[in-house]
Amino acid sequence: MPAIASKQYSDDVSLLVLLLDTNPLFWSTTSITFSQFLSHVLAFLNAVLGLNQLNQVVVIATGYSSCDYIYDSSLTSNHGNFESNGTGMPAIFGSLLKKLEEFVTKDEELSKEEVSEDRIPSCLLSGSLSMALCYIQRVFRSGHLHPQPRILCLQGSPDGPEQYVAVMNSIFSAQRLMVPIDSCYIGVQNSAFLQQASYITGGVHHTPKQLDGLFQYLTTIFATDLHSRGFVQLPKPIGVDFRASCFCHKKTIDMGYICSVCLSIFCEHHKKCSTCGSVFGQSKLDDASSASDKKRKAPST
Amino acid sequence: MEKRVKYKSFVKDPGTLGSLELSEVMLLFVPNDPKSDLKLKVQTHNIKSQKYTKEGSNKPPWLNLTSKQGRSHIFEFENYPDMHACRDFITKALAKCEEEPNKLVVLTPAEQLSMAEFELRFKLLRENSELQKLHKQFVESKVLTEDEFWSTRKKLLGKDSIRKSKQQMGLKSMMVSGIKPSTDGRTNRVTFNLTSEIIFQIFAEKPAVRQAFINYVPKKMTEKDFWTKYFRAEYLYSTKNTAVAAAEAAEDEELAVFLKPDEILAQEARQKMRRVDPTLDMDADEGDDYTHLMDHGIQRDGTNDIIEPQNDQLKRSLLQDLNRHAAVVLEGRCINVQSEDTRIVAEALTRAKQVSKADGEITKDANQERLERMSRATEMEDLQAPQNFPLAPLSIKDPRDYFESQQGNILSEPRGAKASKRNVHEAYGLLKESILVIRMTGLSDPLIKPEVSFEVFSSLTRTISTAKNILGKNPQESFLDRLPKSTKDEVIHHWTSIQELVRHFWSSYPITTTYLSTKVGKLKDAMSNTYSLLDAMKQSVQSDLRHQVSLLVRPMQQALDAAFQHYESDLQRRTAKIT
Q: Which residue spans adopt a coiled-coil conformation according to this UniProt entry (chain B)?
């Protein structure tokens, strides 16, 4: 290329990291097919890239057993392929679909090796969130001139309670980095993880009611850059599902016990914290009173 | 039901104005004049018959109730419709009493209600319209009985009873030495006018005087002679000449009683000092008024003369008098004797003192405890071994060990749907097939139908605008204020009703009697009825408010669902026991 454009980023330059749910156990039960879903998503990504010439898009596939980067618009290998091979597909996403197919094949091989078959059919949200935050951290360290990053979770799988700690750690890291997590849940239930993620990080959470209008939802709500959100009214949550998962059985609870030392959450009373080793129930005052009771009883015997 | 009536015990009685309150269980007449003691309470099942005057005749609207004991109660109503309403109500109540003779046992506690309690309940229902609405909904429809309804509202009933407690009368703060005699000026005679109040105060502050009164009057001297000697002694104190006081005390042994220090007070003080914890660092045995030191203590008359040692026992300091007077005032009036007889007052005070003295006696166990505390206090801390606090050492484990230890829990307790390998394989095949389809055909054209897009956009706009109106910029405003008034009142009433039902429901478990089983059945039916009303209310609300009303109604339905679930499981368990 002749000359690289100089970095002059304004307020509305965005870096969108899209976490794409590719859990086959979810897509085999939905009313909309995965190909239709991909049509809407790819059109949406094209629209985001069209909003600003300097916008960047990264797509991370969230599978049943693994996660991986399947598209990065800032890579030079994705530029220059303008030949059209006769179909309606833009050539710019040819590599994305190719990598997606390779990822699904690898994910299938990994799932065969899994010994456990009792897992809730959830996707690895914590893994993809961690990979997204790693990518954003690299962008931050490349210099003070960088687009404003945000994460968009497109998910339909149910929440996996065993990932509660890892998901919450990712959410708090995103909060610390001031990276909002937008969430679009297309499953049948409510997702407590995504609700808490958007609430804590200041993103937008929405559950579309008509999946055949997904593109309209995406462009109306989630294409807004961070600068424009100060002027645009976006859907606000009426309530947030703040339930947590217990650390002993990995099930979702709304009332439980908590360790006052390390804040671990338990669904039933334990004598000892399995995380930090604190002993519950035995306190100094109880022993002091029992000791004084013994002292008082001795002379009267 | 409540009507204004005039009560007559016989036909030609001029009558007493008041209000007649009717319930299915009881008939209550309360006169308008609070001072009148003509209050009437009749149990419904005690009424044998009733007669009434016919409309159109020259007679006023009378209702004559005859009890089974043969008494007659005539009520004159303001108009004939009122009389007819009461007559019909009593007829229905009497019919119910005859239909259900076995249930009289259940109604027995109602008979034990006092008149004041019954009036208080009616008063509370009259004042609180919400309470009246709940009472009408549950008690008149026989979901709850009267006692069940009021058992959860004892605070309301008890609040009024607290007001009935009387305030205790105190004592004047004027000291006994402030009593001034009257004098005529021409002779040396002075006259003391003693009231029973003054005598009571003297007896309370000076136990020795009280004891002397009991001992001497009337055996050795009259009451007048007693008080003459008492004030003679007080006069001798007011003079500065203690030698004259000592001389008169030597001649008259009865006068000497008033001049000696009060032994009863000294004994009480010693007992109080004995109750003090000996571990306190306090010189409790030394005199706390410094009178044992020379040149300390002000005399009552304000002089500061040095007194001779042999007359030391005749001294009394102002501080002692002030302290004694303050103690008596703070103690208050411990007896309620209003008698003018001085002897009765003195004996009552003595008995009160003896009772309090017995209460304050030190028992053997208390002595033992004092000795233990005394021996423990003498230990020196720096010679003791350091105490070992029972604390476990804190250890933050490696997070990897923690997560690995939890793997066993996952395997031992499987959760969620089991996905077999075949299903996973088929799902992956389906997914790859979808990817192949989109690679071959590309993006669909059109990507989205225009009408679908418009519908999505419209619903989003409506949702966002509605949310803005609801949340708004006024944090004081709640969503309830935006509902129509009838809907808001309905929601609040449903919430109050459900709280009442759920409270009675959970307090009925465990079911140990047939009575509780019947009660739970009634409550369950009432809760089912309320559940249907909630659904009907949700459907009747306008479409734009329905979502918000659903959010408001959800916790109520969850509470009812929990109760239904417990009812079914408990019913199955009890049925299994019977089998």
A: none
CB within 8 Å of chain A, chain B residues 376-405: 389-397, 402, 405
Whether the CB-CB separation of B121 and B150 falls below 8 Å is answered with: yes
Mean pLDDT value across residues B244-266: 73
B39-53 mean pLDDT: 70
Q: Tell me the CA distances in angstroms from B246 to A240, B166, B239, B262, B293, one per residue in order.
A: 92, 48, 12, 16, 22
Residue B38 pLDDT class (50, 70, 90 cuts): low
Q: Which of A97, A239, A262 is facing B435, going by the closest CB pair?
A: A97
Placement of tokens 């009873």 in the chain: B161
Q: Which among A22, A213, A296 has CB closest to B453?
A: A213
- Give the mutation candidate from A32, A45, A238, A253 for the B interface (greatest B CB count, under 10 A): A238
Q: Give B-chain residues touching A88 at CB under 8 angstroms.
A: 441-443, 445
* Between residues B534 and B383, the one the model is more confident about: B534
Return mean pLDDT, chain B.
Answer: 68
Degrees, nearest 5: CA angle A175-A179-A182: 100
Q: Which residue has the higher pLDDT, B343 or B128?
A: B128
Closest-CA residue of chain B to A235: B464
Pairing of β A181-185 and β B62-67: unpaired
CA torsion sign, A21 to A24 to A26 to A29?
Answer: positive
Cβ-contact B538, B505 below 8 angstroms: no
Q: Order the strands of the B47-52 sheet from edge to edge.
A: B40-43, B26-31, B16-22, B2-8, B72-77, B62-67, B47-52
The reply to whether residue A213 touches residue B448, judged by beta carbons under 8 angstroms, is yes
Residue B196's pLDDT is 76
**Topology of B2-99 in CATH?**
PH-domain like (2.30.29)
CB-CB: which of B402, B443, B551 is closest to A274?
A: B402
Predicted pLDDT at A260? 85
> Which domains are seen in chain A, by residue range?
14-78+89-230 (3.40.50.410), 243-281 (no CATH)
> Under DSSP, is residue B333 helix (H, G, I), strand (E, B) or coil?
coil
For residue B557, give the nearest of B534, B529, B523, B541 by alpha carbon.
Answer: B534
Looking at residue B416, the DSSP 8-state letter turns out to be S
State phi, psi for A226 to the nearest 5 degrees. Answer: -65, -30
Task: Give tens-digit pLDDT for B423-468.
Answer: 677 788 888 888 888 877 777 777 888 988 888 888 888 777 765 4
Encode B97-141 in three state secondary structure: HHHCHHHHHHHHHHHCCCHHHHHHHHHHHHHCHHHHHHHHHHCCC
Summarize the confidence of residues B102-123 as an average pLDDT. Answer: 57
User: What is the predicted pLDDT for the residue at B156?
Assistant: 66
> Does B406 sit within 8 Å of A276, measured CB to CB?
no
Instruction: Summarize the confidence of residues B191-197 as an average pLDDT.
Output: 75
**8 Å CB contact of B432 and A101:** yes
| Mean pLDDT confidence for B240-249 | 73
pLDDT of residue B69: 67
| CB proximity A236 to B under 8 Å | yes
Successive 10-residue mean pLDDT values, chain A, 301 residues: 41 85 86 86 90 88 90 69 51 78 86 61 89 91 80 90 87 90 84 88 86 89 85 74 78 79 83 80 50 42 33
Nearest-by-Cβ selection for B452 from A89, A212, A249: A212
Q: Please answer yes or no on whether A25 and B424 come within 8 Å at the CB atom.
A: yes
Read off the pLDDT of each residue in B246-275 and give the average, rounded to a whole number: 71
| Secondary structure, 3-state, B355-392 | HHHHHCCCCHHHHHHHHHHHHHHCCCHHHCCCCCCCCC
List the 359-378 stretch of B: residues with Cβ below 8 A of A: 368-369, 372
Q: Which of residues 163-202 of A touch B (CB under 8 A)?
A: none
Taking an 8 Å cut-off on Cβ atoms, the answer to whether A212 and B448 are in contact is yes
Say if residues A177 and A136 touch (Cβ distance below 8 Å): yes
